[in-house]
Specification:
By secondary structure, the chain is an alpha+beta fold. It is 31% helix and 24% strand.
């Protein structure tokens, strides 16, 4: 069974300054620019925020989720609707029986999934990669996935559906 949870503001915006939030890219990226942007190394603040989702405990805080979404927008910029980020999948650090957690960008919620419980269809394809120790998390888009390491290095996997 999935466990829905939002997290404390401190954990969500760890390393996120007001300056970082104000740097959000506001232009829609074209195909070549999108590919280039997705391949760029992710910032330490972004990687830290994504890997600290479990640290927030069981506090339901919509403001913290909004801050995290702002950080994603600042990091990735505006992306055309058909190419937008659907969600992020990563290893869950809550311990057994939880295996992975997701940040669903459309549903605006974090869910923790136990071993053997299916993720939403759009995110399930990233589960195996998310469990691999080389990756901090996986960004899931409509037609591709981007693996992100702890150092922020990325690799784009095209054509995933």
């Amino acid at each position: 069974m999935a466990r829905n949870l939002l997290f404390g503001k401190e954990a969500a915006i760890a390393g996120l300054s007001v300056a970082t939030r104000s740097q959000a890219r506001t232009t829609t990226l074209g195909a070549a620019s999108l590919d280039s942007r997705l391949r760029q190394k992710r910032s330490p603040a972004y990687v830290q925020a994504m890997t600290r989702v479990d640290v927030g405990g069981h506090v339901h805080d919509r403001d913290a989720l909004a801050a995290l979404k702002q950080l994603v927008a600042a990091e990735l910029g505006e992306i055309a609707l058909e190419d937008r980020l659907l969600g992020i999948v990563s290893r869950c650090m809550l311990g057994h029986p939880y295996e992975v957690h997701t940040l669903d960008m459309t549903g605006q919620i974090i869910e923790h999934f136990k071993i053997g419980h299916t993720l939403p269809l759009t995110l399930e394809r990233a589960r195996t990669l998310a469990l691999h120790p080389s990756y901090a998390f996986i960004e899931v888009y409509a037609n591709r996935m981007v693996t992100v390491s702890d150092s922020g290095q990325t690799a784009v996997i095209e054509g995933t559906t």
